[in-house]
Amino acid sequence: MRKTALKWAAVVATGSVLLTGCGMFGQEKASETIDPPVKVSEGSKDAAQTKTKENAQADKKTEMVKRELYLMDKNGYVVPQTVELPAAQGNAYMKQALEYLVKDGPVSNLLPNGFQAVLPANTVVKGVDIKDGTAVADFSDDFKKYKKEEERKIVESITWTLTQFKGVKQVKLRINGQDVAKMPVNNTPVNGLSRADGINFDDEQVADVMNTKPVTLYFVAQNNKQVYYVPVTRRIAADTDDKVKAVIQELVKGPSHRSTLVSEFNSDARLISDPKFENGKVTLNFNENIYGSVGKNIISDHVLNSLVLSLTEQRGIEGVAIQVNGKSDLLTEKGEKLTKPVSRPQNVNTGSF
């Protein structure tokens, strides 16, 4: 019996999860519009060239790119949602991403149903500089206008949105050009933020924080007919030797009973041998309890995706291969053979709302 059963199995077939041979969540590229060639006479050559330049400029202005914005859902979780934004010029893409986190800002018409932005309304993003892997975001005074209980969500949203970009390892903040070591309302330290600081902390109390370390797990949430993945940080014993094993144990344990999140892991799922690492890939050998209830040799999409998203948060892991009793004969819910490692998607939660 699963510890936490999903009651909306019919949604799975039409949800946002799209598994391919080595990836998930529909990693398609943004579509491009190309004008057909224009036949012109010699006399209208200049006019045609002008028109071609105008078309090229118009195409450039409408080019869209996919970005992950860390927004807040109706249950208060900070969640990645992939949206299409106009392609920013030069290095302005990080500044643009933060601008789309501002309440009542340009994100208003793009917000998925049940989600909201987290940065205080009227906040101006003055710029984002990056040097030696650190992105420094500068905000206006309106950044200070938030409630105490919103502070942690603001910090998480900024950090996880910026660290999606290649080369950004940590984040620092400024207000009106002045470095900020603590947040202005509840004094949360912000002098060097990273994903290691966590997100959506598990609400179960930890008695001895000093002797623990964080791991980030991905569980499933539902909003009407849409399902999506929520990162949750949980603390494990600091002396844990194998973080991969620890992550799997916590995923099998499932989300907190007090949360609104769910899991499809069978509570009897276990690794029957140690994980094997090779060239950025980890191979996991499970017992038969990793299978879903939808058929023999079939692994649930949600189980597979939670494993891949959670494990690729670990440094050095880029792909996950799964075996059962030493054999790689699993099938996805679509009936596809799972013979190759599954990589982390370029964008998470890409479903349309």
TrEMBL record:
SMART domains, A to Z: Germane (SM00909)
Every GerMN domain range: 94-184, 244-333
Region annotation (Disordered) ranges: 33-59
Pfam family, one: Germane
Protein name: GerMN domain-containing protein
